[in-house]
């Protein structure tokens, strides 16, 4: 760890309290001027660090900058095993993790970024990823699953995100099948799993689980095409404090506990009870044909059971369903 990273970890450990420059220099075994330089550098990155004569330095409790140290504070024992790295800006965290995966990186690497310049969504769409207000995160997994079972990664992640948002914000969430997390009728989170098959045995070689959550309202608002469709966990200015770091950790804690027992479907109850429009009308778009149906149930493989107007029933595993 660099002096700056060690200093940040120290300040985060005693957030809101003052530590003297001398104390910090002693603990990090560096000079006081090296401490001062590192403080200046962190401040220029946007960290709110107060400096008071005779008291020392203190990281404001309202700081909400993503950092591995701040996330680690909220991770449980299992989450602590993950190797979290945070970037300021990156084209796409999914792409970055994919590159690591093909280079042989072990399971458990997590990459986050304050901003993505080429965030990827499903079906070749872009994922709006402005700086400072969202969570853009990708996890490298090497599960023993077949390609067909890989959908469980996405659906269990949706349940993990939904639960994590509820715990941190105290607000309700819903899931639009298959894996979009909604609040108040609008999307707050999208999930994109990119998997690579092993040629030897037909199972997954690796999967990159990418999660994008709109946490605070974007500084310049949502672009026109997302207005009325997307929202944030905190759509007003009520987002305060270490929210994003807490939310990241909560998502990772939840997801890892589901992931450990994925084939037992521990996540299924939470997933099922949040699915929008069960029992209600849906429009199913298949092969460019739209049909009216009723959403009946979610089965153990997270397929959506629908009944069409002519009485035919079908289990859908993917595709476009509108409410
Ligand atoms: C969707 O709703 O279409 C899926 C969006 C997935 C976005 C996340 S943000 C982190 C990760 N990196 C990416 O480029 N995409 C995913």
From TrEMBL:
Keyword Ligase appears in the UniProt entry: yes
Residues that hold biotin according to the record: 92-94, 116, 120-122, 187
DNA-binding region(s) from the entry: 21-40
EC number: 6.3.4.15
Protein keywords: ATP-binding, Biotin, DNA-binding, Ligase, Nucleotide-binding, Repressor, Transcription, Transcription regulation
GO molecular function, one term: biotin--[biotin carboxyl-carrier protein] ligase activity
Enzyme class of the recorded protein, top EC level: ligase
Matching Pfam families: BPL_C, BPL_LplA_LipB, HTH_11
SUPFAM superfamilies reported for this sequence: Class II aaRS and biotin synthetases, Winged helix' DNA-binding domain
Catalytic activity: biotin + L-lysyl-[protein] + ATP = N(6)-biotinyl-L-lysyl-[protein] + AMP + diphosphate + H(+)
Domain BPL/LPL catalytic, residue spans: 79-267
GTP-binding is among the record's keywords: no
Entry function: Acts both as a biotin--[acetyl-CoA-carboxylase] ligase and a repressor.
Identification of the protein by name: Bifunctional ligase/repressor BirA
